[in-house]
Amino acid sequence: MDKYNEALKGYITDLNDETVKQSVEKILRDNLAKNSNTEVYKFLFGCIDLTTLKTTDSNTSVAAFTKRVNDFENEHPDMKNVAAICVYPNFAEIVRMNLEVSSVNIACVSAGFPSSQTFSEIKVAETSMAVADGADEIDIVINVGDFLSGEYEEMCDEIEEIKEACRTAHMKVILETGALKTASNIKKAAILSMYSGADFIKTSTGKLEPAATLEAAYVMCQAIKEYYEKTGRKVGFKPAGGIVTSEDAVKYYCIVSEILGKEWLTRDLFRIGASRLANNLLTSIAGKDIKFF
Ligand SMILES: O=C[C@H](O)COP(=O)(O)O
Questions:
Q1: Does the N terminus or the C terminus of the chain have fewer Cβ atoms within 10 A?
Q2: What is the pLDDT of residues 135-172, one digit of tens each?
Q3: Domain covering 3-286, topology
Q4: pLDDT in tens, 15-32
Q5: Which residues line ligand 1 at a C-beta cut-off of 6 Å?
Q6: Can you say whether the dihedral through the CA atoms of 109, 111, 112, 113 is positive or negative?
Q7: Which residues are designated catalytic?
Q8: What are the residue ranges spanned by the domains of the chain?
Q9: In a mutational test of the pocket of ligand 1, which residue from 275, 276, 279, 280 has the highest number of ligand atoms less than 8 Å from its CB?
């Protein structure tokens, strides 16, 4: 048995999807109302990986996107800015050249995002180039095909190789939970990704339906918790894909807060990947319609 199957043996991976659903419902019943407040909205805004991953992105549009983040810093000195700007890897340099806010990181999707269907050499090279151009964080997708075929060693070896190419940049590993279908699969993929060096595990690319779900978040947070109890290493959590309203975001906050606790409620361990959430949180905070980004 290889080391990855060996690692999985230490965890409960036979999960019941209905039980997960009921656990999520209970968490929201007990916590959603009390966490729907300005303080939490502000915290969540500061955890956003502000994302543009469009076919139409260009140097000009990405530079303008970055300048809005600079403007936010100047116009809202009272508030924490977003945590990172997330772009395709060919735009790392443009963001680096235009970003004037040192607290905001540069995150790049990489390694054949969003399908992960390309040569391992290309994945490694793409990652190295993004890091050389200024990426502080690299978001990659697991090889879902390998995972579903039970080829864990292939999937994990490749993640480990990409992790080396990240050097000091943090690696977020996307499970693409919508393609994994069951809670058991999501738990296994989460554990394998963490054993392969993930600094964060992330739900979805936003390019496939269903994207992030609360049930996937619940299972992933449980996996992070159990992994921490066994290894002492804290892995971050990033729900992403289809998170649009302030209420959506607060629901993920409730899951993280209940399962992982306050220690994980920091932008070092909790992010939300989103292209349409920022203005809605600003609107909830201000109590009037805001279209800043
Ligand atoms: O990684 C982030 C996701 O691609 C964002 O998805 P979204 O456009 O549905 O917010």
A1: N
A2: 999 999 999 999 999 999 999 999 999 999 999 999 99
A3: TIM Barrel (3.20.20)
A4: 999 999 999 999 999 999
A5: 51, 53, 86, 205-206, 211, 240-243, 273-276
A6: negative
A7: 139, 202, 238
A8: 3-286
A9: 275
